[in-house]
């Protein structure tokens, strides 16, 4: 056998594994079915602007080890995510904080804002049973109607009353004038884009692009003693128990001859009537000065086989299906499943890195 490890997928999970194994002296081959490195964190250079081709990516973590780890490859800038929400032409700060409460109700102190929210919370008497009830009990009906309902129903393609409450647990609510979306200690974007981060991780490692492992499984399997597979776990097993479900996204990008289109990297559109959920203006992630700009509108939609899988639908039905595949995966002694598709889990980048480092140390 020519290689110690074959790594299927050059996304963040595969690249961290490849880097660490190579560092330990293992002979590694990385294959990816796409024509570029980086999986979903791939950024493409458009005349100086790094375009996040598969959706906006902001690195954030509380873990100093992980922060130092990524900074050992490339320098990160001081980007802080502070999106705005546009509802019927009016702008509101996110996440929900004292600025948002002032814009909505004119309240100036935390107690004034809390009084309004407490009054509106009263309509939920028992424990919240779904996302709608969870949102109202968290921030009241006003914010739910204007900033949550439309956005969430577009994003998930179903009524908030039919969605699990945990989806919005990620959204912070603050009684300070703080528009920082994340509460983590460390945050930023790699200067020069995420592709540079991946290129540094894969420096000196053999990579073959446009190679679909599943189309050439027999031959490629013979090349290495162990395989790390970061593609969809159900596809590996030819969907024998059925396909795991996802939500997908369509990205519509435009290059515009203006320096500054919307003045912020992310603006969410929270009303139901506007079909996209947000507009990303990529140059604001990396603070570059150019005469043009690139914007991307994000349209969520129902996923079907063949579409790009973005958000796993972690409901009971799909989790049961995933468990079947995971049990089957354990019978494949020399194949190790990892990453967001292998684990069928929405994982932020810092968690993907942690999970990859754990896998390598176990191996
Ligand atoms: P991927 O990046 O999907 O990599 C898998 C790779 O495997 C791909 O390159 C694919 O082509 C390849 N592959 C699959 N099957 C095969 C095959 N048969 N043969 C060969 N190659 C194959 N995280 C954050 O921390 N901050 C954010 O702001 C953030 N924003 C996000 C926004 C969106 C819209 C989405 C969907 C995710 C976001 N994430 C964010 C999460 C982030 O994208 C993931 O943590 C990360 O991309 C996961 O890396 P991965 O290597 O597991 O998967
Ligand atoms: N959300 C919302 N309004 C917003 C932004 C988010 O209602 O303006 C809700 C929505 O249900 C979304 C969830 O909060 O799915 C998590 O949002 P986050 O921005 O963390 O996730 P992303 O959409 O970036 O994956």
Automatic annotation (TrEMBL):
InterPro entries: PLipase_C_Pinositol-sp_Y, UDP-GALP_mutase, UDP-GalPyranose_mutase_C. SUPFAM superfamilies: FAD-linked reductases, C-terminal domain (SSF54373), Nucleotide-binding domain (SSF51971). Residues 247-312 form the PI-PLC Y-box domain. Its cofactor is FAD. GO terms for cellular component: cytosol. This is UDP-galactopyranose mutase. Its EC number is 5.4.99.9. It comes from Vibrio ziniensis. Belongs to the UDP-galactopyranose/dTDP-fucopyranose mutase family. NCBIfam families: UDP-GALP_mutase. GO terms for biological process: intracellular signal transduction; lipid metabolic process. Pfam families: GLF, NAD_binding_8. One of its GO terms (molecular function) is UDP-galactopyranose mutase activity. Keywords: FAD, Flavoprotein, Isomerase. The keyword Transcription regulation does not apply.
